[in-house]
Amino acid sequence: MKPVTLKVGLILAAVVTVAVVWQQWPKTPPPWTDAETATLKSLWLESLPDLPEDRSNAVADDPVAAEFGRELFFDPRLSANGSISCATCHQEERRFTDGLQKAQAIGTTDRHTPSIVGMAYSPWQFWDGRRDSLWSQALAPLEDPNEHATDRRQVVGVVAQDESYREAYRSLFGELELVADSDDTELNTAFANIGKSIAAFERTLMPTSSRFDDYVQAVVTDDTERQAVLFTDAEVRGLRLFLGEANCLQCHNGPLFTNHEFHNTGVISFPGEVPDKARVAGVREVLTNEFNCRGVFSDDPERRCSELEFARTGVDLIGAFKTPSLRNLENTAPFMHKGQIATLAEVLAHYNIAADAMIGHNEAKPLALNGRELAELEAFLNTLTAPVRCVGDCP
Amino acid sequence: MIVTRSALYCFLISAIFCSLAPDVRAHGGVVEEDDLCVIKVNYLRAHFKIYQPLAAGLEQYCEDLPVASESIFVMEYQHDSLSEMEVDFRIIRDVTGKGRFARIEDVDAIPDLEGATVYYRAPVIEPDVYTVNYTFAEEGEFIGIVSATQLQTGKVYAAVFPFEVGYTGLGYWPFIIGLVLSIQFQYLLMSGRLRRWFTNRQAAAASLVVMLLLVSPLTFAADYVVTYTTPDGDPEINRMHSWILHIKDDAGVEIEDAVIDVEGGMPEHDHGLPTKPRVTVDLGGGDYKLDGLRFHMSGFWEIVVTISTDEGTSTVIIPLQL
Fold it and tell me: Which residues in B have their CB inside 8 Å of a CB on A?
């Protein structure tokens, strides 16, 4: 080879190397545009509107009911064997989840324990939205043979026989008649009231301001110094991906990072089971549930139930699950409706590929992000961690 | 691209016999159409696919399965009536000796069907989608049998699909060799016929285009103009709200007493609205109150308003960037 050719070759190689390194080298993120700032504000906890009122629950915002509900929430007497309370699966130290794939109580349930923090904002409860209020949701596990495995008569009996419960009940709803003398309507009314008290407690479980929220504050006030202190460049790039290329905002939008709607994202079936039909079955159930917004146990005399009235049904909802919040993912693994995915990194890998769904239609599109981008996205998601707002007895 | 091996073999046979071979799927089976695997239960159709989630994740199979493992058979109905029929599902070891040419008659002729059965799911009405989970204990040749019973008439429709668990290793080679031979065979047989066939095709396509051109004006009804106002404030995501639709024809005459149907969705994301909005009040003067509208994502939406009057039916699409 001629020396001149060699020289040209070496120079070319050097230029290409520098270009590639330049291309790949992490760069300091550019400042946020007005449009991006507006989107960031939409995700800010400060933007969270007031808690929507639950007209079907007259004691929803009554502190006495919340305290009564808190005690019920932690009371294992509300179970067939006296060992299971709501808190068995909704563990405060795990952000009201349990760290298991599928919940374990008296038996093994069908799905993964979802967090209940901020769920008072959702028109639908459960992964498949088969209940339309926190109070009607609270009743279902009590009678599920795999959960508390008790029944409404026993639950009302526990309240009737506990002096302090009886008093709390009386002050909220009037005298609790003894169960043996009660007809079904009285029994069901008392059962619904117990659910309404638990719901009043659950309405107090709210996320608190995270590092991300402080960062948005710094963006809104244009405090670039503070922005640099709060977020690493990788976290900023992760956030930028979250807002843009990674398409996360399609479902994880608003201050709770969820649109409270149902989406099929093609999660693999649980070993030994057929794929879960999810919302398509859940919506059928909520429309006929005796404790739904239209039922006789609702406290709204006008029965304004627009969610039920305009609920979408049909095959589009096959395999569609409710979008979970992304606030406070720490300590809540595994993920997805049956805990099929063990880590956050694997969840992101799942969305990166977005294969066809086993049943129904996967709404997610492949992202084709590279490994570094996925790591940055994960780094950003971890900035959403913050303590749950302290309630009742907590320190 | 999903290609069923039996479909390939059928194609091969029909190719050899100049496509005059009897239809071996007359009673239903699994075929490949437009990259989709379809099961035909008589005239009833469903998308058909099999997964081996433990062995192959979200990889889809149409018939043959690579290993003996947990296998999930999925039928997504293309025909609503399947969701109202009792459907049962049986997997038998292939004792017919017919391999992938086994037909329903061969299955009916099995003296001890129960004895050959490795999996049976009793008849059940499954709305939405039909799924079965069976873990194969061993590799081999199997036959799947799906029967659907129409409850009113008691009529039974069946589909039979032979498949292999654990490939024999021959793969598609017999097909490829066969295809080469058959092309040669056909070339020798009918060198002049091919050109005639193409000419016929062109004529048929041309006549179809002419027919469509003749028919198309008839399918367009009156042109309407739909505008809307939002009494609850500008549309924002995740809030249920109402619109007032104002409907006029292209001459500016307000359209009253129309039946309005509203659908919508995000064309870029292949999904519809999260709710089922509908017109609740005909306010008169061409105004209609549309309730129960909610958008759950930012982005480009289309609201599809179908207006039916005595004049006919017309559809107007309202674009909306959120």
Answer: 49, 51, 53-54, 57-58, 60, 70, 72, 74, 76-77, 127-129, 131-133, 237-238, 240, 269-278, 291-292, 294, 296-299
